[in-house]
């Protein structure tokens, strides 16, 4: 009868594939876990810092804007390649001042039939320049075709979507953040 007891004792001390595990504590290497956690903190901090840096939006009209006279505004619409309607506002602008304008933005306020603002957009100033391969003019950086003193140039504003409540009249325009040569 001693024999079965010995085989049971041997069976409890044997560590097999599905048997009991050795109860000795293993030393845990914390270095990879700490390095991984620190790396994740650095990545999250970088995303937060980079995400917070937004370009300054000028909230008032530029003082030089009084020297830019909109002589004509022409609205047109076209469908883009995904089927959405894009609105173009071509402004014929005369520079009556003494500085050369090479960039800036325009604040456009679209109104409904009651005169209430239904959409406000801040759009970059882009000049209509001849296409390099011929054909129709295209909107390009104003620095490529600056608006000098006494000059008149067509500037194009492109609006991807306008509220359906818009009254189809010319929007109110205000030049902001003008840059000069």
In short:
Helix content is 19%, strand content 37%. The protein is of the alpha+beta class. Strand 5 (126-129) and strand 6 (138-141) form a beta hairpin.
Quickly list its features.
181 residues; 2 domains; five-stranded antiparallel beta sheet; 37% strand; three-stranded antiparallel beta sheet; elongated; Immunoglobulin-like; 2 helices; alpha+beta
Outline the fold blueprint.
Blueprint: H1 2-13, H2 31-52, E1 68-79, E2 85-95, E3 101-111, E4 117-124, E5 126-129, E6 138-141, E7 152-159, E8 172-180
Antiparallel strand pairs: 1-2, 2-7, 3-4, 3-8, 5-6, 5-7
Structural commentary:
It is a single chain. This protein has 181 residues and is of the alpha+beta class. The protein is elongated and about 90 Å long. The strands form 2 sheets. The protein has a 5-stranded antiparallel β-sheet with strand order 1-2-7-5-6, with no helix packed on it. Strands 4-3-8 form a 3-stranded antiparallel β-sheet, with no helix packed on it. It folds into 2 domains: 2-52, no CATH class; 63-180, Immunoglobulin-like, CATH 2.60.40. It is 19% helix and 37% strand. The protein has helices spanning 2-13, 31-52, and strands spanning 68-79, 85-95, 101-111, 117-124, 126-129, 138-141, 152-159, 172-180. Strand 1 and strand 2 form a beta hairpin.
């Amino acid at each position: 009868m001693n024999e079965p007891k010995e085989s049971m004792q041997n069976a409890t001390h044997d560590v097999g594939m599905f048997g009991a595990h050795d109860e000795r504590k293993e030393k845990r290497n914390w270095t990879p876990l700490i390095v991984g956690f620190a790396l994740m903190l650095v990545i999250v901090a970088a995303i937060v810092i980079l995400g917070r840096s937004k370009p300054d939006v000028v909230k008032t009209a530029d003082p030089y804007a009084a020297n830019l006279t909109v002589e004509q505004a022409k609205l047109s619409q076209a469908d883009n390649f995904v089927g959405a309607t894009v609105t173009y506002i071509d402004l014929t602008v005369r520079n009556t001042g003494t500085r050369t304008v090479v960039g800036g933005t325009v604040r456009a306020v679209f109104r409904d039939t009651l005169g209430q603002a239904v959409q406000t957009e801040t759009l970059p100033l882009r000049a209509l320049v001849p296409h390099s391969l011929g054909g129709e003019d295209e909107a390009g950086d104003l620095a490529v075709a600056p608006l000098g003193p006494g000059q008149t140039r067509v500037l194009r504003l492109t609006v991807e979507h306008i509220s359906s409540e818009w009254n189809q009249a010319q929007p109110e325009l205000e030049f902001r953040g003008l840059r000069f040569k």
